[in-house]
Amino acid sequence: MSTLPKVAWVGLGIMGSPMSENLIKAGYQVTGFTLEQEKLDRLSAAGGTAAGSIADAVRDADVIVTMVPASPQVEAIAYGPDGILENAKSGALLVDMSSITPQTSVDLAKAAKDKGVRVLDAPVSGGEAGAIEAVLSIMVGGEQADFDEAKPLLEALGKTIVLCGPHGSGQTVKAANQLIVAVNIQACAEAVVFLEKSGVDLKAALDVLNGGLAGSTVLTRKKDNFLGRDFKPGFRIDLHHKDMGIVTDAARNVGAALPVGAVVAQLVASLRAQGDGGLDHSALLRAVERLSGAQV
């Protein structure tokens, strides 16, 4: 019998499915729940156990991991008679890896404490590729002892794992991450259009740029998206739109000005309004092309 903690996983989307499978590969017993039957079938095929409800998934779990799109979904799965807090055993550790507002994480930790459940907010960066390769950056908020307990599990999912402060801190750092990523993608998109309109060999240009100070993880990960106009979602515009709302609101609450971030937030919103919300966030290139007179 394995001495590893039993894991419940709620939310098996683009990120959640490969992440849960990495836990299975690391020897964890994973019971999962999500709303899509095909995702449950995928978990079962990988060696996990599909549950029929949240309650069934979490009842015997030592660690409960959640990975859902936004704050409303976290609240929906956490609260109420059929939710996590009412059905988890006392002493369980809830690791929420969703990207949500810092205040939602603070409120969840407080409500969970009343139920004898400990909480970490642990959002991630690295996209679908990082989830598949288990090289995610994981930014954590919560108590040191809970972080120490969760770290071996998190090490099966990511490469850079840091406790950033008390509850909500992980979400604050993730909001900053999404700000940096969005601005970086926008700059890359503008450069791509500029280079193409100038008649430069785009692949050669991006290769040399990525070898210098302009190089970045964003350019490394998204270069082929730009070159091939491949916007199959690794991280959807809809989700980045949500995240830009989080960082804009959080910055306003603490009195931080985000002039460039505000512009990029509007560009993300405009792309979504034009029907591109389901595309990868590298599709910011499409918005720049439209502004530059291209028909896309």
TrEMBL record:
<keyword id="KW-0520">NAD</keyword>
<feature type="domain" description="6-phosphogluconate dehydrogenase NADP-binding">
    <location>
        <begin position="6"/>
        <end position="165"/>
    </location>
</feature>
<dbReference type="GO" id="GO:0008679">
    <property type="term" value="F:2-hydroxy-3-oxopropionate reductase activity"/>
</dbReference>
<dbReference type="InterPro" id="IPR006398">
    <property type="entry name" value="Tartro_sem_red"/>
</dbReference>
<dbReference type="Pfam" id="PF03446">
    <property type="entry name" value="NAD_binding_2"/>
</dbReference>
<dbReference type="InterPro" id="IPR036291">
    <property type="entry name" value="NAD(P)-bd_dom_sf"/>
</dbReference>
<dbReference type="GO" id="GO:0046487">
    <property type="term" value="P:glyoxylate metabolic process"/>
</dbReference>
<dbReference type="InterPro" id="IPR029154">
    <property type="entry name" value="HIBADH-like_NADP-bd"/>
</dbReference>
<feature type="active site">
    <location>
        <position position="174"/>
    </location>
</feature>
<dbReference type="Pfam" id="PF14833">
    <property type="entry name" value="NAD_binding_11"/>
</dbReference>
<dbReference type="InterPro" id="IPR015815">
    <property type="entry name" value="HIBADH-related"/>
</dbReference>
<dbReference type="InterPro" id="IPR008927">
    <property type="entry name" value="6-PGluconate_DH-like_C_sf"/>
</dbReference>
<protein>
    <submittedName>
        <fullName>2-hydroxy-3-oxopropionate reductase</fullName>
        <ecNumber>1.1.1.60</ecNumber>
    </submittedName>
</protein>
<dbReference type="GO" id="GO:0051287">
    <property type="term" value="F:NAD binding"/>
</dbReference>
<dbReference type="InterPro" id="IPR006115">
    <property type="entry name" value="6PGDH_NADP-bd"/>
</dbReference>
<dbReference type="InterPro" id="IPR013328">
    <property type="entry name" value="6PGD_dom2"/>
</dbReference>
<dbReference type="GO" id="GO:0050661">
    <property type="term" value="F:NADP binding"/>
</dbReference>
<feature type="domain" description="3-hydroxyisobutyrate dehydrogenase-like NAD-binding">
    <location>
        <begin position="168"/>
        <end position="287"/>
    </location>
</feature>
<comment type="similarity">
    <text>Belongs to the HIBADH-related family.</text>
</comment>
<keyword id="KW-0560">Oxidoreductase</keyword>
